[in-house]
Amino acid sequence: MPASVPADLYKLLVDTVSDYAIFALDPDGNIVTWNAGAERIKGYAPSEIIGRNFSTFYPLEDRIARKPERELEIVRRDGRIEDEGWRVRKDGSRFWANVVITALRDPNGTLVGFAKVTRDVTEHRAAAQALRDSEQRFRLFVESVRDYGIFMLDPDGCVVSWNEGAERMEGYTADEIIGQHFSKFYPPEDLEWDKPGVELEGAARDGRFEDEGWRLRKDGSRFWANVIITAIRDASGALVGFTKVTRDLSERRLAEQQALEDARRVSLAEAANKTKSEFLASMSHELRTPLNAIGGYADLLLAGVTGALTGIQCDYIERIHRSQQHLLSIINDLLNFSRIEAGGLTYDLTPFSLNKSIDHVVTLIEPQANQRGLTIEPRSAADVTAFGDELKVEQILLNLLSNAVKFTERGGRIEIAPFDVDDRVGVRVVDTGVGIPADKLDSIFEPFVQVGRGFTSTHEGVGLGLAISRDLARAMGGDLTVKSAIDEGSTFELTLQRP
User: Fold this and answer.
1) Hey, what domains does the chain have and what are their CATH numbers?
2) Is 158 exposed, middle or buried (0-12, 13-18, 19+ CB in 10 A)?
3) Which of 4-13, 21-30, 250-259, 457-466 is most confident?
4) Secondary structure letter of residue 488 according to DSSP
């Protein structure tokens, strides 16, 4: 002890330290001094502990194993021992202690006792254990992830760790790849311009590098990968390596390419439909002009403007007129169809009387029906009001009646009547005609499909009437459906919205 420092100053220093238990033991391990830190940590007052053996602080399992005695033996031999382990407080609770025991000898080298310094490091140990547990959990997490290849590279780009996901994705086991350069995963065209090196330079410079591109498996096959490389630096900022996370996006890329192809096909189909509709509209307008002229001149000839006609001449001109009307009807159907497809029709939706519309179309179709020896029976009922475009509804009804006349044999009957049942309003057209095969019921509303094709009788038209009629009905918020059986007739039902 320096002569200038009073002895009681050392005693004061030891006695007042509260973060360390500092006390002396005699050569047998009995306690001879006790400071404030010892009382705080261990829970004993000096009067309760001085004179007792220091083994009092050891748990039962350590005393049975004679750990206190063995520690003193080591100190006698080596002069010092340091240990960490469980110690026991006065109340029986345990704490994790860092303990240093030092041999005390007189100037002659004779052992006179021991100095024992104990520190409670329970919180430090808990924090260290929590860190170890966290690291272990993270390591297990990384190693068990299967959807991502997660591994580490040294500063030169050599693989130093390898998880299960990397093995599944790349095909290499850890023993096969650790120590190899990560450029093994890149195709030849990328190696030509040192893409792996460029990526490491970018990650080292910016802290992170992300890329998508082709990568190679062990078997040489390619997969489309998303790759993120992150630089790892120590506390001083020195580069110690990189983490590399790889995900196989081959399926997603294939789906995206398929979606692009589908969109391209849809775009081409839409363009083709638009071109087709424009062609039909243009053709229809071009054909209607000469057809109207043919009809006009036929009417003039029949009216005798150029002089009286013979019976056979009148017959021929009547045939010309009927053919002109038939062609004009086909052209009008084509024009209407192209307008519907192009969304070029407008609708005047208002409440109107279905009974009135039925009377109107029956008046128009009766001459045809009479020529074929058919009876049209409009079924009267209480006036039914619907909500829709009155002119387009009459166009649908005229089409349905024309079909019924066309496909009903002489002497047959056609009924047309409004209905108002539950939440539905509309019109039914029922005929006693040839009927429709069950396997054709779904197709008759398709464009250019004719009802009755394949039977012995032939019928005029191009098969657009029902397609146009259903499209018109649905555009007004309604629908057009059919029930039919061969040789029993057909029932078409037009449903419309209520006002």
Assistant:
1) 7-124 (3.30.450.20), 145-248 (3.30.450.20), 254-341 (1.10.287.130), 350-496 (3.30.565.10)
2) middle
3) 21-30
4) T
The two structure tokens encoding residue 109 = 């080298």
Q: How many helices (H) and strands (E) does the chain have?
A: 15, 15
Structure-block tokens of residue 395: 């166009």
Q: For 52, which DSSP code?
A: S
Nearest alpha-carbon partner for 379 in 413, 418, 352, 412: 418
Tens digit of each residue's pLDDT (9 = 90 or more) over 178-226? 999 999 999 999 999 999 999 999 999 999 999 999 999 999 999 999 9
The mean pLDDT of 274-284, rounded to a whole number, is 64
Strands 424-431 vs 413-421: parallel, antiparallel or unpaired: antiparallel
**Tokens standing for residue 61:** 């399992």
**How much is the CA Rg of the chain, to the nearest whole Å?**
51
CB-based contacts of 196-203 (< 8 A; 24+ apart in sequence):
196/157, 197/157, 199/227, 199/229, 200/153, 200/157, 200/229, 200/242, 202/229, 203/229, 203/230, 203/231, 203/242
**More confident site: 11 or 223:** 223
CA angle 21, 24, 25 (to 5 degrees): 120
Residue 263 burial by Cβ neighbours in a 10 Å radius (0-12, 13-18, 19+) = exposed
Cα dihedral 57/58/59/61 (nearest 10): -160
